[in-house]
Design goal:
Layout (H helix, E strand, L loop, with lengths): L7 E6 L2 E8 L2 E7 L2 E4 L2 E2 L13 E2 L3 H6 L6 E2 L12 E5 L4 E5 L3 E7 L14 E7 L1 H11 L3 E9 L2 H12 L3 E8 L5 E7 L5 E6 L8 H6 L1 H6 L2 E4 L5 H13 L3 E4 L9 H4 L4 E5 H8 L6 H13 L4 E5 L5 E5 L2 E5 L12 H14 L4 H15 L12 H10 L1
Parallel strand pairs: 4-7, 9-12, 9-16, 10-14, 12-13, 16-17, 17-18, 18-19
Antiparallel strand pairs: 1-4, 1-8, 2-3, 5-6, 10-11, 14-15, 19-20, 20-21
Helix pairs in contact: 2-10, 8-9, 10-11
């Protein structure tokens, strides 16, 4: 998408229950999110409003309508003023972020507690959300102001088509979201208890077929990216290959090693940053984490494997940062947790956005902590990810 210094994007979200689909014996309530988007905008009288939110559009209704990726996209001027809330502006002047990763449909059961092995519990509430760690992080980065391209693979089915439409509605570049004609889209089965803890099982489907030749197709986007963000829900050889290509092109390669997996030295040497939770950090370092000293020890071990910067997330306690030779503990925020499913993904996406805006690593982690704190107060994966405006309000209330 061609952009210039006057380019920005207005997105208005209205969430409601409008469509129901019968898929694979499930009656699924699909959250349809109409999004109003104007692609080309220009400042009125050379300036924006005081809070930087309002820009005037070019008077070209047909172009705005014809460029809309889905019928859900309408011109701002055509939308009732009473509906215009949750307004977000994204100035596309930061470095491009490429996210390579998984795309799943999350089927969630909300329960009082998680069942024990062999136990069946009755009475949980069911709902469905778009998910997958790659998709979650791409959506988080886009909502928080990032210029995002997503590289993924979906099945030739309703889940896959719906996912692509949703990414486009979020303003994500989807030309490298490929369709696999032989494998279904990925699915995750998630149980969440009353304290927000979760248990997740994933059927990878098309995600497992995202292979190095697919990365070659996205070589142009990777070459133009300032940041490449990846996880481990796609094949390891693909992640390793993409990291090498991106490092050669000068991009900062950031890995969220989830789910925990043995990492080849070739991959670790190409990482600008590794973002791991305590469990993942223990797995990679071989060190049990019990206190802040052991957190620092684990970060040292990971760093010595060739990783330039290490961030270990600590849940409500915030995050620990090893930035080359210096150490920082960034405190978290006290909130009432409802569902932690997408907290880590929001953290990763937010951190990349902050880095793309030339913030320091500690500033980026502080921003990511705030975004993740908002996420855990809501149910669902992508449905819980905040927009930049919400984070700004949260910061003012601290």
């Amino acid at each position: 998408m061609k952009q210039n210094n006057l380019f920005c994007k207005i997105i208005v979200n209205e969430t409601g229950y409008k469509d129901f689909f019968l898929v694979a014996f499930f009656i699924i309530a699909v959250y349809r999110t109409p999004i109003i988007k104007v692609e080309e905008l220009v400042k009125e009288n050379g300036r924006a409003s005081k809070d930087g939110q309002i820009y005037r559009r070019k008077a070209d209704k047909r172009k705005a309508m014809n460029n809309s990726p889905t019928p859900l996209l309408r011109r701002v001027a055509d939308y009732p003023a009473s509906k215009m809330y949750n307004l977000n502006i994204t100035m596309r002047m930061n470095k491009k972020i490429v996210v390579i990763g998984s795309c799943n449909t999350d089927m969630v059961v909300n329960m009082e507690r998680l069942p024990l092995p062999g136990e069946t519990l009755i009475g949980g509430k069911f709902f469905m959300n778009p998910g997958g760690k790659g998709a979650n992080q791409a959506v988080a980065a886009a909502r928080l102001g990032g210029n995002v391209t997503f590289v993924a693979k979906v099945g030739n089915d309703a889940f896959g088509q719906r996912a692509i439409e949703q990414y486009q509605a979020e303003g994500i570049e989807t030309r490298y979201v490929l369709v696999d004609g032989e494998n279904p889209s990925g699915v995750a089965l998630i149980m969440v208890d009353a304290q927000g803890e979760n248990s997740i099982a994933v059927a990878s489907g098309a995600n497992a077929q995202l292979l190095p030749p697919d990365i070659d197709r996205a070589a142009e986007a990777i070459a133009k990216a300032g940041i490449l963000l990846m996880q481990l829900e796609t094949p390891m050889r693909t992640v390793d290959y993409a990291a090498r290509i991106a490092k050669e092109k000068g991009a900062k390669v950031i890995l969220n090693p989830a789910p925990a997996h043995t990492l080849p030295d070739s991959l670790l040497r190409n990482l600008y940053m590794l973002i791991a939770n305590e469990t993942e950090a223990e797995f990679i370092s071989g060190t049990q984490i019990t206190d802040m000293d052991s957190v620092a020890r684990a970060a040292d071990i990971i760093s010595h494997k060739g990783v330039e910067n290490v961030v270990i997330t600590l849940g409500a306690k915030g995050a620990f940062v090893k930035e080359k030779g210096s150490y920082h503990q960034i405190p978290g925020h006290k909130v009432k947790a409802v569902d932690a499913t997408a907290a880590g993904d929001t953290f990763c996406g937010a951190l990349c956005v902050a880095l793309s805006e030339e913030k320091s690593i500690t500033e980026a982690v502080e921003f990511a902590n705030r975004c993740a704190a908002i996420t855990v107060t809501r149910m669902g994966a992508q449905s819980s990810v905040p927009h930049r405006r919400e984070v700004d309000i949260f910061m003012k209330e601290l």
